[in-house]
Amino acid sequence: MNPVFKKISFKLFKFSVRILIVLCLLLLIGFAKEKYQFKVNKEHLNHKNIFIGDSHIQKSVDPTKFKQSINIAQVSESFYYTFYKLKYLVDHEIRIKSVYFGVGYHSFSSYYDKYTFGKFSEDIRARYFYILPFTENLTFCQSHFKTILDFSKSLISKNSKFYDAKDLNHTFLGGHTNFFVNSKLDTSYIKIRAKEQYFNENKLCEISQVNTSYFDSIVSICKRNQIKLTLISTPVHPYYDKCVPNYFKNYFFQKCKKSGCKLILFDSNHFNNDCFYKDGDHVTKKGGEKITSELSLMRLPDLFIK
Fold this sequence. Notes:
This protein is α/β, with parallel strands linked by helices. It contains twelve helices and seven strands.
């Protein structure tokens, strides 16, 4: 071997080893940070009614209006991540009073898979990386090896901030927020949104096997740990509702019924246009306030008003 080439190869090897060591150190620091932050916030999670799910429930329920309640929903959180979030809480001996779980027609569409393992998954995975099983993360990193550096950047940026005991919105927990204030419905945008969620190149999307499987896992983990599970389907605008294929509506109601859980289904006819974001799929801040108010009027036995 050419001495010059050999020297360059050795330098590259040393550089690669150093990079690997730095990444390992960052991972260890990340695990230690997550463990510390969770320990700090553990008391704020104990004995709570938990609202959990994706952006629909995140923007819909203000937990400060209820006693002993917290909203830990996150944008684009598939049932896969919701399950591992609940499992993490249960494994760390968080005593949960009850779980209010956000579900919708879109939840069972395979379009959601791209946010779990597909092209939009890297930034989302970074939020939950430190609470997921090693084998799950290893499989993910192997399948996304070509973009591992971008994923590493997301992992560092998502976990670089420290939060105090008053702020539960760290990394994997999420929290209630809604900045949709001056939003107007847009029927053309609703069509685009529905097409994205239920169609793939003009063909009907398949049922998401991932979300279906983890929906069942969420039901099971709650039953095993004697946690009361209630399903919440937030309202969608009537125009959006007409764009949803009956195939997904039927499957949604079938899964909810089979779960044996109570389903809270909001009547969209009770919500004015200004209660909906332009996609007809999410609620505005006003819509969220109305949902919270309607929940309080239901006088649910485990959800007490402040």
